[in-house]
């Protein structure tokens, strides 16, 4: 029954994925995406919580400027988002939570699916599958370059299975369609709303990360790093670069001094560290001392202590660079992730539950990763309340890395991931 469902649903999974891929939206601006998800789940009978019902407005980090939000809200209306739905999401309160209660006492199971895209301009190379099959991004400099279009489709497939088989299932299911995963900004707002506080088992996962054969999954993923993301604003004084350079206070030099020294932070003997300056914008003309500069940076660490070490060093360097060039510096934390520790007790369960899967060919106990994920906040909240949580990988061939203009995945992985999750649902409900 399970395999037949997945097989019959394959065309729909691909259709959702391609539709979402063609119209990507950045974090906290997923108005159209949230609406599409919501209408699909509303028709199934899920109890929906949208916008501020799903997340705590004040706990969001790195919210885009109001002008960008308003422009995208107008675009959402043009694309057919109903005003009653948009009203719930105004101001960047995107994402939703869908709840299904079978009415039979059992475990509360939670799933997280991230829905946002990245500020990357997608390749139009005809060898790139989305370009070849005409579902390439329609948005300049916005692209699903990390597989979240696939994750959202997987979530919709899981929701359809729950709705169609509720008479066989037990317990309660909460599906979190989370905005703004990129930059570690959205999970905190959903955690603050309390959705994870009484979850017994929590599952999430990612397409790819490592290039693995389709049909291979990993039950756990050690190695995720704690991270903090910052925006830094340097404010100096402009002046004529030829006639009065001594009167200027160069914000560009302060930023570049900071950037060079951030990469010189000593590594830590207790574990892995990372630092990156991802964006630096400064100046207005070749003969003008730059008055303003802006940087986007991140630091990461293998443990909480190492992450704090990196954060302290980074913020001190930013301020010291500003002092050196006699400018001011404002540092704004805009994203946060924590260390992830999956529950190893789930490895034999997932392995056993997936034995009957037609699509899952191999379950690896674990695959080590080295990025960061704000799902960590959700997992840690579940575990803090004595629940169990894991983050899985779903194998696919990767011709290009994540966050690349030609990133893509084998669409067969969608079937594998849906089948893995519904195997977990059935197994957890005692269905063989």
Tell me what the structure shows.
The chain is α/β, with parallel strands linked by helices. It folds into 2 domains: 2-223 and 340-428, Aminopeptidase (3-Layer(aba) Sandwich), CATH 3.40.630; 226-337, Alpha-Beta Plaits (2-Layer Sandwich), CATH 3.30.70. Helix content is 34%, strand content 22%. It contains 12 helices and 12 strands. The chain has helices at 2-22, 31-44, 66-78, 83-89, 129-132, 148-164, 187-191, 251-262, 304-324, 346-353, 375-384, 412-428; strands spanning 47-50, 96-101, 108-114, 172-178, 201-211, 216-220, 226-235, 273-282, 292-301, 328-337, 362-366, 388-396. It has an 8-stranded mixed β-sheet. It has a 4-stranded antiparallel β-sheet with strand order 8-9-7-10. Helix 1 (2-22) packs antiparallel against helix 6 (148-164) and helix 6 (148-164) packs across helix 12. The longest helix is centred in the first third of the chain and has 21 residues, at 2-22.
């Amino acid at each position: 029954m399970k395999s037949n469902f997945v097989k019959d649903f394959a065309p729909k999974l691909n259709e959702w994925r391609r539709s979402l891929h063609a119209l990507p939206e950045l974090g906290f601006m997923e108005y159209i995406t949230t609406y599409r998800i919501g209408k699909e789940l509303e028709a199934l009978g899920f109890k929906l919580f949208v916008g501020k019902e799903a997340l705590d407005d004040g706990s969001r980090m790195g919210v885009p400027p109001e002008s960008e939000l308003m422009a995208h809200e107008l675009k959402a209306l043009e694309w057919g988002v109903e005003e009653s739905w948009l009203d719930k999401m105004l101001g960047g309160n995107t994402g939703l939570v869908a709840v299904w209660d079978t009415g039979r006492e059992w475990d509360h199971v939670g799933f997280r699916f991230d829905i946002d895209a990245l500020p990357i301009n997608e390749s139009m190379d005809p060898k790139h599958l989305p370009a070849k099959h005409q579902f390439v991004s329609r948005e300049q400099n916005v692209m699903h370059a990390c597989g979240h279009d696939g994750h959202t489709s997987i979530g919709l497939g899981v929701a359809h299975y729950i709705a169609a088989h509720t008479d066989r299932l037990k317990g309660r299911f909460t599906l979190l369609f989370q905005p703004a995963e990129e930059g570690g900004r959205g999970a905190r707002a959903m955690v603050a709303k309390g959705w994870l506080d009484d979850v017994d088992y929590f599952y999430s996962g990612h397409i790819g990360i490592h290039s693995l054969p389709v049909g291979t999954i990993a039950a756990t993923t050690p190695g995720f790093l704690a991270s903090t993301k910052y925006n830094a604003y340097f404010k100096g004084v402009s002046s004529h670069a030829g006639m009065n350079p001594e009167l200027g206070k160069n914000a560009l030099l302060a930023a570049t001094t900071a950037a060079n020294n951030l990469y010189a932070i000593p590594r830590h003997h207790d574990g892995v560290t990372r630092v990156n300056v991802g964006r630096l914008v400064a100046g207005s003309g070749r003969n003008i001392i730059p008055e303003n500069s802006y940087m986007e940076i991140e630091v990461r660490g293998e443990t909480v202590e190492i992450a704090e070490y990196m954060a302290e060093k980074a913020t001190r360097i930013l301020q010291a660079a500003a002092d050196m060039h006699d400018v001011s510096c404002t540092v704004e934390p805009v994203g946060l992730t924590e260390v992830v520790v999956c529950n190893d007790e789930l490895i034999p369960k997932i392995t056993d539950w997936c034995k009957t899967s037609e699509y899952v060919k191999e379950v690896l106990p674990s695959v080590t990763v080295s990025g960061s994920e704000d799902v960590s906040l959700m997992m840690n909240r579940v575990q803090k309340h004595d629940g169990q949580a894991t983050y899985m990988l779903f194998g696919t061939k990767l011709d290009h890395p994540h966050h690349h203009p030609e990133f893509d995945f084998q669409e067969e992985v969608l079937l594998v991931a849906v089948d893995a999750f519904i195997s977990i649902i059935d197994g957890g409900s005692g269905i063989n």
